[in-house]
């Protein structure tokens, strides 16, 4: 477990761009390269690692508009709404969250597009596909922080 | 960015080879040499398109807790309050949004105790009292790769 935590802490900083990155990681945590590769593959298989790959800055990649679209979905429609909404490739995240006074929205979707019009079009399409008409688009006007989580920090 | 860069980005966002020589495997898939793949990845880092190569962990499986917080901040204080909030390492995302709830941030902490401590600390340092705690009750999708 302690070795696992050391490995997690090392991996979350990102692997070096070099011919044998896992050998380099292995050296830092005093494991063998084979052990590191096997452990990562185990974590991918059991879902501890959701994804292993390059993380990109989507604004630099041309996806400059980014909107959080929140929906007021009747309880009995949540399942169907979620299933349909996640089929849209522009939807990166979709969560159910609690409503609060003055803010009756219970489903949160993140929509990424190359323009505001594109985000609006996606939101409208989701509304038409699901029949849920009460939604609100909250555009991002400042990105103060966006980092990877620090586990066992 | 040319066609090969875009192909490379599409592959390594979702399917980075977990193997001794990952760039050699990528080179075979793209029909270029290992050293050319490495050069291209270095360049994509330098131009800032790639932020990091590594794992995205499942927060809950690591025993950590996460939350989204919606705050209502007087317009003239948004920048100042945002900078205080961003200074906590447990704050992973912090965005200004066009809404009466104009600051939205996420926290990932090792347990509920640490989370409550940080939220209390943020409230007392900023003086902002209207914050709504919005934990995910259900996750339908998390997908952060982009098609190039």
Notes on the structure:
The complex is a heterodimer of chains A (153) and B (148). Chain A is an alpha+beta fold and 153 residues long. Chain A has 2 domains: 2-46; 65-139, Alpha-Beta Plaits, CATH 3.30.70.3460. Chain A is built from 5 helices and 5 strands. Chain A has helices at 2-11, 21-29, 33-46, 78-85, 116-130; strands spanning 49-56, 65-71, 91-96, 107-113, 135-146. Chain A has a 4-stranded antiparallel sheet with strand order 3-4-2-5, with helices on one face. The mean pLDDT of chain A is 93. Chain B has 148 residues and is α+β, with helices and mostly antiparallel strands. Chain B folds into 2 domains: 3-46; 60-134, 2-Layer Sandwich (Alpha-Beta Plaits), CATH 3.30.70.3460. Chain B is 39% helix and 26% strand. Chain B has helices at residues 3-14, 22-30, 34-46, 78-86, 112-126, and strands at residues 50-57, 65-71, 91-97, 103-109, 131-134, 138-142. A 4-stranded antiparallel sheet of chain B has the order 3-4-2-5, with helices on one face. In chain B, helix 2 crosses helix 3 (34-46). The model of chain B has no long low-confidence stretch (mean pLDDT 95). Chains A and B meet through helix 2, helix 3, strand 1, helix 4 and strand 3 of A and helix 1, helix 2, helix 3, strand 1 and strand 2 of B.
What is the fold's blueprint, element by element?
The complex is a heterodimer of chains A (153) and B (148).
Chain A (H helix, E strand, L loop, with lengths): L1 H10 L9 H9 L3 H14 L2 E8 L8 E7 L6 H8 L5 E6 L10 E7 L2 H15 L4 E12 L7
Antiparallel strand pairs in A: 2-4, 2-5, 3-4
Helix pairs in contact in A: 1-2, 2-3
Chain B lengths: L2 H12 L7 H9 L3 H13 L3 E8 L7 E7 L6 H9 L4 E7 L5 E7 L2 H15 L4 E4 L3 E5 L6
Antiparallel strand pairs in B: 2-4, 2-5, 3-4
Helix pairs in contact in B: 2-3
């Amino acid at each position: 477990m302690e070795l696992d935590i050391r490995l997690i802490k090392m991996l979350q900083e990102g692997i070096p761009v070099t011919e044998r990155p896992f050998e380099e990681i292995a050296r830092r945590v005093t494991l063998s390269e084979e052990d590191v590769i096997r452990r990562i593959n185990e974590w991918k298989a059991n879902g501890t690692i959701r994804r292993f790959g390059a993380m990109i800055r989507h604004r630099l990649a041309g996806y400059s508009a980014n909107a959080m679209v929140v929906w007021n979905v009747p309880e009995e429609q949540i399942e169907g709404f979620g299933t349909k909404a996640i089929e849209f490739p522009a939807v990166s995240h979709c969560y159910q969250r609690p409503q609060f006074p003055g803010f009756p929205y219970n489903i949160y979707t993140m929509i990424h597009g190359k323009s505001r019009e594109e985000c609006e079009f996606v939101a409208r399409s989701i509304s038409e596909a699901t029949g849920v008409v009460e939604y609100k688009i909250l555009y991002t006007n400042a990105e103060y922080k966006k980092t990877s989580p620090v586990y066992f920090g | 960015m040319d066609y090969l860069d875009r192909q490379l980005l599409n592959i390594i966002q979702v399917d980075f080879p977990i193997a001794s020589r990952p760039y050699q495997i990528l080179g075979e898939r793209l029909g270029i040499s290992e050293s050319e793949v490495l050069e291209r990845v270095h360049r994509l880092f330098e131009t800032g398109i790639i932020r990091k190569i590594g794992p995205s962990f499942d927060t809950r499986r690591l025993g950590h807790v996460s939350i989204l917080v919606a705050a209502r901040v007087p317009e003239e204080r948004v920048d100042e309050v945002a900078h205080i909030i961003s200074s906590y390492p447990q704050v992973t995302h912090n965005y200004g949004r066009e809404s009466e709830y104009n600051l939205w941030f996420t926290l990932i902490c090792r347990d509920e105790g640490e989370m409550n401590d940080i939220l209390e600390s943020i409230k007392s340092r900023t003086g902002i009292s209207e914050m709504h705690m919005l934990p995910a009750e259900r996750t339908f999708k998390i997908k952060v790769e982009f098609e190039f």
